[in-house]
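Quick log. Single chain, no ligands specified.
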Amino acid sequence: MPRAAAPDPLTTYRAKRRFAETPEPSGATTAAVAGASYLIQKHDATRLHYDFRLELDGVLLSWAVTKGPSYDTKDRRLAVRTEDHPLDYGSFEGTIPKGNYGGGTVMLWDTGTWEPVGDPHEGLEKGKLVFLLHGKRLVGRWGLIRMKPREKDRNENWLLIKEKDEYANTEPDILERELTSVTTGRDLSAIAAGGKPKRQSKAPLPGFTEPMLAQLVDAPPTGEGWIYEIKYDGYRAQIAASGETVKVFTRSGLDWTEKFPDVAKATAALNLDGALIDSEIVVLDDKGRSDFGALVTALESGKGRMSCFAFDLLRLGGADLAQQPLTARKAALQALLGTPKPDAVIQYSADITPPGDNGGKKLLETACRHGLEGIIAKRAVAPYRAGRHGGWLKIKCGHEQEFLILGFAASDKARAFSSILLGLREGEAIRYVGRVGTGFTEATLAQLAVLRDRHRTDKPAASDIPAPMRRGVTWVAPVLVAEISFAGWTRDNNVRHGAFLGLRQDKKPTEIVKETPKKVSAVVASADRTDLDGVKISHGEKIVYPDPGITKLEIASYIQAAGKAMLPFAAGRFITLVRAPSGPDAKTFYQRHPHAGFGDAWKHARFAKDKGESEDYIYFEDPKALIAAVQMNVLEFHIWGAKVASLEKPDRIVFDLDPDPGVDFAAVKAAALRVRDVLEALGLQSMPLLSGGKGVHVVVPVQPKYEWPVIKEFSNKLSYRLAADAPEKFVATMSKAKRTNKIFIDHFRNERGATAIAPFSPRARAGAPIAWPLDWPGLQATAAANAISLRDAAAKIAVGEAGWGDYGKIRQNLSVAALRALDVAF
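-> predicted structure:
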């Protein structure tokens, strides 16, 4: 059953930061292999200083060195101990927005590795840490000496000292001479301005992805959890950029890079690392309003100034950001773009969070009063999902949309035509919706006349055009899409007072239907329910793991993908579920009896308890049951050691290695290998499972031959034998007092009615770790028991890297010799 989590070394780090606003890493990912990285980040915050970091035990130990390091052995540089940082902070370079903890510009000043001289844990405890640095700028032997604390000190004060060796006193002016990043070649001012790194991107150029679209609604949503953007009237564009290679895609995936050369050039100048940016390309009038007609003219003439308003970041550096909350994606985008000049081609599309439940309504009124097209409302926590969903809403000030051109009415003046006849699709048919005769320039009249002659046809595409409207009309195939602004709809559902704005080449004629605003309440309610394998997931946008911002829908999607992998290990067994209605940081409770809300996919069977009592316990055969459990806020799945078909004969034995907080993970891995070796000596193969907490489970598959008392006694006596052989390392009793700095071999998982975490199950712990199955070499290369996060696991499953592939091939049982060796009665 779940145990209290070990203290998270990054709790202080995370508590000080608002990851929806800062581009700093949340520490959700960990290194697969323990390392010894060293780095210094030059940090221009309230006061300039140098952050000195050494990797140890899966985190970066950190000191703020106020005057920076010195090669002079006489210098004693004050180094204030700060909170531990995550490993992925070691590659961070950028600007922390003002108002956030540590607000200012961060540069990677030095990177490399370090070697402790002696035991680093002992050195930290005694206050004298000596080490060798192998950096690009700092090398040789160095020391950190802790100063005696004073009453007013809030942090530990240390001194960073260069010790005497062949490198001592050789670089007296290194801080004055080395003023740029060791990775990007930029100085602090260039980083703050979003300047181009002096390196080429290594991430591949991202491809086009189907865009997320906004649903037209009749009013802004009410309540909290929404952010707003200005609605622009232009061309939707996805910009893929890697170094100087840039492609600009339309909303349908057409490569229009050549049509937007200024946008491509401006993006290339940023030298982005495998970025995919969602944006809108517009032409602004003298009042800063987007003008679609002017954009069309600029495209046709090749002249005119275009602006690109970037509003979302889908990929960066080879990483998929789509499942992160919108606020996190926009914060990363804003940090990526920096603070562009007002006349820059690429601009960040600012988000607005108006106060109060009716803030959106007031914002819409302001936008309409200033002649803007409208506003966009977006769920602050929503992931990026292709298609039109209630996570993004658009509210317009007036009427403007696309129409099909059905024909051209002849003119009695010296014009190519007098008006165009418009249509919209209704199912398979096309309906006539009126005509428009204004908004044409001489250039557009000539252009449309050419297209009229090119697409001429004998019959109209709509059958409901009134006879008076057919006279003198040249019919065309319904392939031309026109953008029309109009005052509204007549009683006959025709456009009223329409004006031509321009042709659209980025939208398919088959998509052109009447845009009718839907009731915002209905759209929002519908968006809160998503179907996965027939299971309705409500409130899917709800953030369950605040760090790293994982939603209920993302958990359900992971379980949908992991269900097949879990099936061989969890199906057909009694399950104890851990439900967390308010997330992993709040109160959780267990569920093992039938519940109406779980749906038909969950089955139940009678379980005979002690004293003649019996209860119904739940189990499943269809992975869909797991998704239904997530809908009921289940985060953990704990499995019985025997299948329902043979309840009294277990088919797995579990040794749960549970370390005291003072035991590092290297010792846990060594303990697991020791258990493996002892089992092999008894003729038993085993497999390791990362618990997702702080320990490792050593799992032994066996044939269901012996009943619970035999399995219980075997695991009990083996555990006590291991503890007796190495009492300084192991303990087999549950007594807390006897477990200090030792590993508890928890053999109580092997009793009738006990459970253990299922492979691939999420854990109700910070960071969304997964109980991940490994082979033995994989365990040795792993840095922590919680090294695999939900997103890591999803990526591994997607490429077929789910562990324990050989588990099902193991056919073994407890031998008579093994039982006798431990004096087990059978």
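The radius of gyration is 33 Å.
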